[in-house]
């Protein structure tokens, strides 16, 4: 039996995906990593960069995205944006970016990495219920490093700190979502997530605990 080209061509046109659909499928990665930088770090991943790079290198097709927020804390370059305003905006920004990605790529696995103020906004968004149902389903691992919301005694705490950060969770606090996928790193000498006096300690989490963080994330993926 012979088919007329006039019949075949319309059929092919109907079967082919629209360009925007094809682009959407191609852009969805099996694993997508969000990194939220620390206060004063320039736009990008900040100290989470090395862990992002390691995870990308270990998972074929994985992609990443930096959280776009002020990361301000009184520095001149921020003008009038205070730390308080920055972390409030940052919490809203991370919620928006993660929810948007999860809506577009529901089959992707999501990893959240937050450092210092970036850890605070990640904590507030994840534990505070700021993500959509689709996002919570997609999120497989959540890492806080040096977050000011740290409080000793939570099930996911890692490190030597036995006190709390300057924006600590209240006594008796419990994360509002699955805490088995969280790790929060803080050492005693850190003046931001704990009550120490060594600012250098605050920058050590990626180098000191990096391999441990990567192993934990991989165990959840």
Write up this protein.
The chain is α/β, with parallel strands linked by helices. The chain has one domain: Rossmann fold, CATH 3.40.50.1820. The chain is 38% helix and 14% strand. It has 7 helices and 6 strands; from the N terminus they run ααβαβαβααβββα. It has helices spanning 5-15, 19-27, 49-58, 83-104, 117-127, 133-138, 205-220, and strands at 31-36, 63-66, 109-115, 139-145, 157-158, 182-185. It has a 6-stranded parallel β-sheet, with helices on both faces. α3 (49-58) links the parallel β1 (31-36) and β2 (63-66). α3 (49-58) runs parallel beside α7 (205-220) and α4 (83-104) crosses α5 (117-127). The longest helix is centred in the middle third of the chain and has 22 residues, at 83-104. The N and C termini lie far apart (52 Å).
Note the topology:
Layout: H1 5-15, H2 19-27, E1 31-36, H3 49-58, E2 63-66, H4 83-104, E3 109-115, H5 117-127, H6 133-138, E4 139-145, E5 157-158, E6 182-185, H7 205-220
Parallel strand pairs: 1-2, 1-3, 3-4, 4-6, 5-6
Helix pairs in contact: 3-7, 4-5
Tell me how many strands there are: 6
The residue ranges in which pLDDT falls below 50 over 5 or more consecutive positions are 1-26
Topology as a string of helices (H) and strands (E): HHEHEHEHHEEEH
Specify the helix fraction band. Answer: 25-40%
- Categorize the overall geometry: globular
CATH top level is Alpha Beta
Q: Remind me, CATH topology?
A: Rossmann fold
**What is the CATH superfamily classification?**
Alpha/Beta hydrolase fold, catalytic domain
Q: How many separate domains make up the residues?
A: 1
What is the straight-line distance between the termini? 52 Å
The CATH architecture designation is 3-Layer(aba) Sandwich
């Amino acid at each position: 039996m012979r088919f007329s080209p006039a019949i075949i061509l319309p059929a092919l046109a109907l079967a082919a995906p629209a360009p925007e659909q094809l682009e959407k499928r191609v852009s969805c990665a099996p694993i997508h990593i969000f990194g939220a930088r620390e206060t004063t770090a320039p736009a990008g991943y900040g100290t989470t960069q090395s862990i992002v790079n390691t995870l990308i290198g270990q998972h074929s097709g994985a992609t990443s995205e930096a959280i776009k927020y002020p990361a301000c804390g009184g520095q001149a370059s921020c003008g009038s944006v205070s730390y308080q305003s920055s972390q409030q905006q940052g919490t809203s920004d991370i919620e928006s970016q993660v929810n948007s990605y999860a809506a577009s790529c529901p089959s992707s696995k999501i990893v959240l990495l937050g450092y210092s103020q970036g850890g605070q906004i990640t904590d507030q968004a994840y534990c505070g219920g700021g993500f959509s149902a689709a996002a919570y389903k997609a999120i497989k691992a959540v890492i806080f490093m040096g977050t000011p919301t740290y409080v000793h005694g939570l099930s996911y705490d890692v490190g030597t700190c036995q006190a709390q950060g300057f924006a600590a969770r209240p006594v008796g606090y419990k994360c509002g979502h699955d805490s088995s996928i969280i790790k929060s790193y803080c050492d005693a000498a850190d003046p931001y997530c704990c009550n120490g006096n060594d600012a250098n300690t605050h920058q050590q989490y990626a180098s000191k605990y990096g391999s441990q963080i990567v192993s934990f994330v991989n165990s959840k993926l």
